[in-house]
Amino acid sequence: MTGGLLSGRAAVVTGAAQGIGLAIARSLHAQGAKVALVDLDGDRAGQAAAELGGAVLPLACDVTDEESMDTVLRRTVEEFGSLDVHVNNAGITRDASLRKMTVQDFEAVMDVHLKGTWLGVRAASAIMREAGRGSIVNMSSLSGKSGNPGQTNYSAAKAGIVGLTKAAAKELAHKGVRVNAVQPGLIRTPMTEAMPSDVFAEREAGVPMKRAGEPDEVAGAVLFLASDLSSYMTGAVLEVGGGRLM
């Protein structure tokens, strides 16, 4: 696509092989962006990139590894000539009650979500501040706002991403780099499809709009924050939850 809100810009989306990440990559690409689809599973990233067509770059990356993240962003700039949008979306779950959760499962979730986001923000902002512009979008969750039983690791990581977003936004605003976050609620993804059906139904019933959201609805909020439509917004946290927890 030659026109669109992101025409001529280059974007990186982590966790882009499926679910919300793929929906985000698809949305940015449809609005003219050249997109690097980044995922731990490089083969699945390649399959997702083939679906989008031209002006895409599938890359394998462990977001918890500093060198891996730096390499991905360097490859993106080499391929596309710039880095204008960076979306930290990669995530995992290791749910268990506080009593049963292992230290390893706590650390794994914190590493992917919080450390991975921090590494992404740091690496992307180093490139963007030199260019004097750029938009970074971090994926938090309503679990980080309210806390979910069985998710002390996930809720803590997602709350931490809000603090990271606001601190980074204050550091980078004078360099023309914006940092914002999105907090999805109950969204239909492979991750939520793994929930017991009765638990999913109970949570869906608690949403004022009486339905779960779709990945494309989260992608719309990310597109807004990535584009110039949100040019005077930084440090903001957009909730995409059908009114849940408002």
TrEMBL record:
Its EC number is 1.1.1.100. InterPro entries: KR_dom (IPR057326), NAD(P)-bd_dom_sf (IPR036291), Sc_DH/Rdtase_CS (IPR020904), SDR_fam (IPR002347). It holds the Pfam family adh_short_C2. SUPFAM superfamilies: NAD(P)-binding Rossmann-fold domains. One of its GO terms (biological process) is fatty acid elongation. Residues 9-190 form the Ketoreductase domain. GO terms for molecular function: 3-oxoacyl-[acyl-carrier-protein] reductase (NADPH) activity. The keyword Nucleotidyltransferase does not apply. Keywords: Oxidoreductase. It is an enzyme of class 1 (oxidoreductase). SMART domains: PKS_KR. Belongs to the short-chain dehydrogenases/reductases (SDR) family. This is 3-oxoacyl-ACP reductase FabG.
